[in-house]
Design brief:
The complex is a heterodimer. By secondary structure, chain A is an alpha+beta fold. Chain A is 32% helix and 36% strand. Chain A has two helices and four strands, in the order ααββββ. Chain A has a three-stranded antiparallel sheet with strand order 1-4-3, with helices on one face. The termini of chain A are close together. The longest helix of chain B has 21 residues. The termini of chain B are far apart. By secondary structure, chain B is α+β, with helices and mostly antiparallel strands. Chain B has three helices and six strands; from the N terminus they run αββααββββ. Chain B has a three-stranded antiparallel sheet, covered by helices on one side. In chain B, β5 and β6 form a beta hairpin. Classes of the chains: A alpha+beta, B alpha+beta.
Chain lengths: 106, 178
């Protein structure tokens, strides 16, 4: 079974839109937003029922003119494992979500 | 956009043996943001080289039972933490934030960390290294992650570093492959 980055990215986009869709950055709520985005995405990924272990990371940053760089390096079996990253933004914040899926089958 | 060029470059750099993803994302301010209030944009990048999945499917492997329930050697969280501290400090101690420099730096640092963890020779563990480097600009950022795995064998390690003009966060996830 191979990881499908397309499906995963659709799921994540929906999750993010539903949680922080039209909202402006709010420092007191940022905690629960990151937690909600990550937990919802993980839940939906698991519902796909595929034999994978998942790692979901979300970075939410306020728009203030600063730059942000993200890189990842993975040591795994590239024929079965995969990753997918979604960059999302609205008027006041950026959100970068990475999903790594590691297969648990030979 | 430049994503396509980056993907092409990543494909060209494919090595046999271990496959490394060399993508980095930078987030720049849009100069003329006159969009409507509720507009949001999302872009997707694939770090995977799609070519891999088109290779001939492997024949199902028959493995003998090892009767081994747990890993012989567990992932050393403390050692890895020291590695992260070491690498981030040595690469970023005196650096000032610059877009081009940091773009290269994220890719380099993630490769270096992965190589040093591989040198620890911990069998049967798959490694994922994630680096964020950003400018310090009176803004706030929150990075969170959740994992669905076997918490008795799988673990993570994390370290954050900052100097005058930039911050860096390194996350390492280790997943046991039974």
């Amino acid at each position: 079974v191979v990881f499908s980055a397309d499906e995963a990215s659709n799921i994540i986009k929906e999750c993010v839109d539903s949680i922080i869709g039209g909202i402006d950055y709010n420092h007191s709520k940022i905690n629960q937003w990151t937690a909600a985005v990550v937990e919802q995405s993980l839940m939906h990924l698991v519902k796909m029922g595929k034999p994978f272990k998942y790692i979901v990371t979300c970075a939410i940053m306020q728009k203030s003119g600063a730059g942000l760089h993200t890189a990842s390096s993975c040591y795994w079996d590239s024929s079965t494992d995969g990753s997918c990253t979604v960059r999302w933004e609205n008027r006041t914040m950026y959100c970068v979500i990475s999903v790594f899926a590691v297969s648990i089958m030979l | 956009m430049s994503d396509i060029a980056k993907d092409k470059a990543a494909r060209l750099l494919k090595k046999t043996g271990s496959f490394s993803s060399l993508s980095s994302y930078d987030v720049k301010v849009k100069e003329n943001m006159r969009k409507q209030k509720d507009s949001s944009m999302s872009t997707v990048s694939y770090m995977d080289d799609p070519g891999h999945h088109d290779d001939l499917p492997r024949p199902a492997q028959q493995m003998e039972n090892t009767y081994q329930l747990n890993p012989t050697k567990y992932f050393p969280g403390a050692t890895v933490n020291n590695i992260l501290k070491d690498v981030l400090a040595s690469y970023l101690q005196e650096e000032k934030y610059e877009p081009e420099l940091c773009r290269q730096m994220t890719k380099t640092i993630s490769e270096v960390i992965k190589a040093r963890i591989k040198d620890l020779m911990i069998p049967r563990y798959k490694i994922i290294v994630l680096i964020h480097i950003g400018q310090l600009n009176e803004q706030s950022i929150r990075i969170g992650s959740r994992c669905l795995w076997n918490s008795s064998t799988d673990t993570f390690s994390s370290f954050s570093f900052c100097n005058r003009s930039l911050f860096a966060v390194a996350n390492v996830f280790a997943v046991y492959f039974e």
